[in-house]
Amino acid sequence: QGGTRAILAAVQAHIITYLLFTRETESTHLDRLCQLGPREQGQALATALAETLWAAGGGGRAVVCLITAPVTTVPREGYRASSFTERVLLFEFSGKAAAQGFISDHINSFKGKGSHGVILFLYSLLFSRTLER
């Protein structure tokens, strides 16, 4: 019923925590939220995603999923092509800063219109946590 609300709420909580308490600035706490530009918004989102993935990976790894351009593939017998899953690429990081930098460099994959950002983040969470855990 909730759809993507639970995932978005968790990310928003991390963004607000970063903006109010972590980010270095000389402004007062509430002024910080009113003076954000697009670059700072992207940085806050990248930080929130990296922190969440790092926590899901137990503080030792993070996996970031991105999607490639559409390609035509013939599914193996017994499978049907979803045209999404076949295009997912996994990038594994053993350092939180490296994961955050990568996410920051590819932030439009998570926030751009039609980017499948929520499902990519959900896949990233699953692979960071591992299917066994």
SSE layout and pairing:
Elements: H1 5-22, H2 29-34, H3 38-56, E1 62-67, E2 88-93, H4 96-105, H5 108-111, H6 117-129
Antiparallel strand pairs: 1-2
Helix pairs in contact: 1-3, 3-4, 3-6
Q: How many discrete domains?
A: 1
Strand line-up across the major sheet:
1-2
Principal-axes shape call: elongated
Helices and strands, in order, run as HHHEEHHH
What are the low-pLDDT stretches, counting only 5+ consecutive residues below 50? Answer: none
Q: What is the tally of beta strands? A: 2
The chain-level mean pLDDT equals: 86
Given the helix and strand composition, which structural class is it?
Answer: mainly alpha
Give the percentage of residues in beta strands: 5-15%
Total number of helical segments? Answer: 6
Share of helical residues: 40-55%
| Main beta sheet strand tally, sense and closure | 2 strands, antiparallel
The termini sit apart by 25 Å
Rg of Cα set = 16 Å
EC number: 3.4.19.12
Protein name: Ubiquitin carboxyl-terminal hydrolase MINDY
Organism: Sterrhoptilus dennistouni
Family: Belongs to the MINDY deubiquitinase family. FAM188 subfamily.
Give the key terms:
elongated, 133 residues, mainly alpha, two-stranded antiparallel sheet
Report what the structure shows.
Keywords: Hydrolase, Protease, Thiol protease, Ubl conjugation pathway. It holds the Pfam family MINDY-3_4_CD. Its EC number is 3.4.19.12. It is a single chain. The model has no long low-confidence stretch (mean pLDDT 86). The chain is built from 6 helices and 2 strands; from the N terminus they run αααββααα. Strands 1-2 form a two-stranded antiparallel sheet. It has one domain. α1 crosses α3, α3 packs across α4 and α3 runs parallel beside α6. The two termini are 25 Å apart. The protein is mainly alpha-helical. The relative contact order is 0.16.
